[in-house]
């Protein structure tokens, strides 16, 4: 098990991009966040085939980033933050 010291800073830089006006930027930010959290699980000692409920839920929010309605997009971004 190894600690991942700059996780919070990296997440702090990615999450605001989930509200970007361009859908592709929002999708890429969520994918990068998913990858970052997957790396964190490996650092924590979990096996490659370990399935995490939070990551699965995060992946499921990807469709919500296609919304142009600001209320739905806000709801999706709030879910990402949780």
TrEMBL record:
The chain positions of domain Maestro-like HEAT-repeats read 1-81
What InterPro entries does the annotation carry? Maestro-like_HEAT, Maestro_heat-like_prot
Please give the Pfam families that the UniProt record associates with this protein.
HEAT_Maestro
Q: Name one GO cellular component term.
A: cytoplasm
The protein's name in its UniProt record: Maestro-like HEAT-repeats domain-containing protein
Please tell me the species this chain comes from: Chiloscyllium punctatum (Brownbanded bambooshark)
